[in-house]
Amino acid sequence: MLATSESSxxxxxxxxxxxxxxxxxxxxxxxxxxxDRYWLDVHAKVFSSIAIAKRNLLKYEQFHLDPKxxxxxxxxxxxxxKSPFRGIAIFEATSLDKIFEIFRDEEYLRVVVPDEHKFFDxxxxxxxxxxxxxxxxxx
Length: 139
What we know:
The protein has a four-stranded antiparallel beta sheet with strand order 2-3-1-4. The model has no long low-confidence stretch (mean pLDDT 91). It is of the alpha+beta class. 35% of the residues lie in helices and 18% in strands. The chain starts with 17 loop residues before the first strand and ends in a 9-residue tail after the last strand.
Protein backbone atom coordinates (compact mmCIF):
# COMPACT_ATOMS: atom_id res chain seq x y z
CA MET A 1 0.00 0.00 0.00
CA LEU A 2 1.33 3.43 -0.91
CA ALA A 3 -0.41 6.36 0.70
CA THR A 4 1.08 9.76 0.04
CA SER A 5 -0.02 13.37 0.14
CA GLU A 6 0.26 13.34 -3.69
CA SER A 7 -2.94 11.28 -4.01
CA SER A 8 -6.05 12.95 -5.40
CA UNK A 9 -7.86 13.07 -2.06
CA UNK A 10 -6.51 14.66 1.11
CA UNK A 11 -5.43 12.37 3.94
CA UNK A 12 -8.19 11.41 6.33
CA UNK A 13 -8.28 10.21 9.90
CA UNK A 14 -9.25 6.55 10.13
CA UNK A 15 -12.68 5.97 11.57
CA UNK A 16 -12.46 2.17 11.80
CA UNK A 17 -9.77 2.09 14.51
CA UNK A 18 -8.05 4.10 17.21
CA UNK A 19 -4.66 4.06 18.89
CA UNK A 20 -3.67 4.65 22.49
CA UNK A 21 -0.04 5.42 23.27
CA UNK A 22 1.51 5.16 26.73
CA UNK A 23 4.75 7.10 27.17
CA UNK A 24 6.75 5.04 29.62
CA UNK A 25 9.54 5.82 32.08
CA UNK A 26 11.57 3.17 33.92
CA UNK A 27 10.81 2.40 37.55
CA UNK A 28 13.19 4.36 39.83
CA UNK A 29 16.39 2.42 40.46
CA UNK A 30 16.13 0.43 37.22
CA UNK A 31 18.70 1.06 34.51
CA UNK A 32 17.60 1.78 30.96
CA UNK A 33 18.97 -1.59 29.85
CA UNK A 34 17.06 -3.45 32.58
CA UNK A 35 13.86 -1.59 31.71
CA ASP A 36 14.28 -2.17 27.98
CA ARG A 37 15.07 -5.90 28.18
CA TYR A 38 12.35 -6.66 30.75
CA TRP A 39 9.68 -4.82 28.77
CA LEU A 40 10.52 -6.64 25.52
CA ASP A 41 11.57 -10.07 26.78
CA VAL A 42 9.23 -10.61 29.75
CA HIS A 43 6.37 -8.13 29.87
CA ALA A 44 5.44 -8.48 26.20
CA LYS A 45 4.75 -12.18 26.78
CA VAL A 46 2.81 -11.51 30.00
CA PHE A 47 0.59 -8.88 28.37
CA SER A 48 0.01 -10.71 25.11
CA SER A 49 -0.94 -13.91 26.96
CA ILE A 50 -4.14 -12.53 28.49
CA ALA A 51 -7.37 -13.43 26.72
CA ILE A 52 -8.84 -9.93 26.52
CA ALA A 53 -5.72 -8.52 24.83
CA LYS A 54 -5.91 -11.26 22.21
CA ARG A 55 -9.62 -10.60 21.75
CA ASN A 56 -9.73 -6.78 21.80
CA LEU A 57 -6.53 -5.59 20.13
CA LEU A 58 -5.77 -5.36 16.44
CA LYS A 59 -2.16 -4.46 17.17
CA TYR A 60 0.21 -4.00 20.12
CA GLU A 61 3.58 -2.42 19.43
CA GLN A 62 6.50 -1.30 21.54
CA PHE A 63 8.65 1.65 20.51
CA HIS A 64 12.04 1.33 22.21
CA LEU A 65 14.30 4.34 22.62
CA ASP A 66 17.80 3.78 21.28
CA PRO A 67 20.25 5.80 23.44
CA LYS A 68 22.78 6.02 20.61
CA UNK A 69 20.42 8.43 18.82
CA UNK A 70 20.19 10.91 21.73
CA UNK A 71 23.40 12.72 20.71
CA UNK A 72 22.22 12.91 17.10
CA UNK A 73 18.89 14.38 18.18
CA UNK A 74 20.58 16.88 20.51
CA UNK A 75 22.94 17.96 17.71
CA UNK A 76 19.99 18.60 15.43
CA UNK A 77 18.29 20.71 18.13
CA UNK A 78 15.04 18.80 17.58
CA UNK A 79 14.45 18.76 21.33
CA UNK A 80 15.61 21.14 24.01
CA UNK A 81 15.59 18.68 26.90
CA LYS A 82 16.08 14.99 27.50
CA SER A 83 12.81 13.13 27.85
CA PRO A 84 12.19 10.95 30.91
CA PHE A 85 10.40 8.49 28.63
CA ARG A 86 12.26 5.46 27.36
CA GLY A 87 9.55 3.82 25.32
CA ILE A 88 6.02 4.00 24.00
CA ALA A 89 3.47 1.21 24.22
CA ILE A 90 1.03 1.50 21.30
CA PHE A 91 -2.34 -0.22 21.39
CA GLU A 92 -4.66 -0.34 18.37
CA ALA A 93 -8.30 -1.46 18.41
CA THR A 94 -11.63 -0.78 16.74
CA SER A 95 -12.56 1.62 19.56
CA LEU A 96 -11.10 3.25 22.64
CA ASP A 97 -13.67 1.31 24.68
CA LYS A 98 -12.06 -1.96 23.51
CA ILE A 99 -8.69 -0.77 24.83
CA PHE A 100 -10.09 0.45 28.16
CA GLU A 101 -11.92 -2.88 28.61
CA ILE A 102 -8.46 -4.43 28.80
CA PHE A 103 -7.34 -2.07 31.57
CA ARG A 104 -10.46 -2.89 33.63
CA ASP A 105 -10.28 -6.65 33.07
CA GLU A 106 -9.79 -8.91 36.12
CA GLU A 107 -7.00 -10.93 34.49
CA TYR A 108 -5.17 -7.76 33.43
CA LEU A 109 -5.43 -6.34 36.95
CA ARG A 110 -4.33 -9.62 38.54
CA VAL A 111 -1.55 -10.64 36.13
CA VAL A 112 -0.33 -7.67 34.10
CA VAL A 113 -0.43 -4.75 36.57
CA PRO A 114 1.84 -6.45 39.14
CA ASP A 115 4.28 -7.20 36.31
CA GLU A 116 4.18 -3.55 35.16
CA HIS A 117 5.21 -2.42 38.65
CA LYS A 118 8.44 -4.41 38.26
CA PHE A 119 9.80 -2.17 35.50
CA PHE A 120 7.71 0.90 34.71
CA ASP A 121 6.79 4.04 36.67
CA UNK A 122 2.99 4.45 36.48
CA UNK A 123 3.12 7.91 38.09
CA UNK A 124 5.30 9.33 35.30
CA UNK A 125 3.38 7.71 32.44
CA UNK A 126 1.50 9.87 29.98
CA UNK A 127 -1.33 8.60 27.80
CA UNK A 128 -2.43 9.87 24.40
CA UNK A 129 -5.33 8.50 22.38
CA UNK A 130 -7.02 9.21 19.09
CA UNK A 131 -7.55 8.34 15.46
CA UNK A 132 -4.67 8.35 13.02
CA UNK A 133 -4.00 9.03 9.35
CA UNK A 134 -1.36 7.35 7.24
CA UNK A 135 0.38 9.95 5.11
CA UNK A 136 3.28 7.89 3.70
CA UNK A 137 3.35 4.10 3.69
CA UNK A 138 5.62 2.32 1.24
CA UNK A 139 4.78 -1.18 2.44
